[in-house]
Amino acid sequence: MDVKVFAEILDSDFFCGVPDSQLRALCDWLTDTYGSDPKHHIIAANEGNAAAIAAGYHLATRKTPVVYMQNSGTGNMINPSASLLNPKVYDIPVIFVVGWRGEPGVHDEPQHIYQGEVTLRLLDDMGIKCFVISKDTKPEDIAGFPKGQQAAFVIRKGALSYEHKVKYQNANTMTREEIIRHIIAVTGDDPIISTTGKASRELFELRKSHEKDFLTVGSMGHASSIALGVALNFPRKVWCIDGDGAALMHMGSLGVIGSISPANLVHVVVNNSAHESVGGLPTCAGKIDLPSIAKACGYVHVFSARDYDELDEALKYARDNDGLTFIEAKSKIGARDNLGRPTTTAIENKSAFMDYVTRLQNA
What we know:
By secondary structure, the protein is of the alpha/beta class. 41% of the residues lie in helices and 17% in strands. The strands form three sheets. The chain has a six-stranded parallel sheet, sandwiched between helices. Strands 8-7-9-10-14-13 form a six-stranded parallel sheet, sandwiched between helices. A two-stranded antiparallel ribbon has the order 11-12. Strand 11 and strand 12 (281-282) form a beta hairpin. It is globular, with a radius of gyration of 21 Å. The chain starts with a helix and ends with a helix.
């Protein structure tokens, strides 16, 4: 279905959400149609944030907003959907547009399999009427969806189309893969916890010894919290490779990490100001000061690197000195066309990582 036809059916002039690769057509259309006008389109920090913004829009306008997301984000929107939007509470109408990753019978990555199995069931349990959109869905098939209520359009792979693919870029010079290569050169035998998306894929391809790394292939925004749990129970340096979108998604974790302030944790945020792994739409990280936020949260050593010399200086300082450390590495958008995916399963990765950590602890 042409996304412009789909948008006409939705009949809303406000969209808020978290980008998804299966919603790329919608995201590109939103960029072309509204640009960065926050009165019509906001890229939220997480899906619950989007639902709350949408509620505020309805309170001020009496109109029905649209919240878009990957189905992995339904967990973040369950609370506002159940305790804010629900007819038994404030009865606020919202149209959800949900990219269906891990759809049963469709090959996908391991972190999407279970989420895909329960997507329709979760929405149904929350009393949200679902309409599945496929490549062959016709406008008349969905034109009668119940307006003025909560409803969800669950989007299958390739179901929406748009003639223009927007290219996103920034003015940074470093690449994420080369940043990760520089991190590996400094960390030695120390374990690394990496965030979901292309960062973990690049780390896997660059590292010869995969047992040193825990690849957080799902759970966007939680890699730094996993790293905190490891660091508090491990006698040497622990490194976290994070992304700006992930750091923003659950930014409260910075406050928790900073308040505990483990001296052996190094938190590196590769900031390309974009949700690159799902299409490249911008995050707000290009407009805010992440290092100052980390400093205010209690991080002891804080750096921002715009080139490889500054990055190496910060990494070596973190390696050689104690104290909770935050390093922002400014990165351009882009990855190799032939970038692969981990060849080990999530369970194999976990087992190898735990065995490695145990050996280091007993050494």
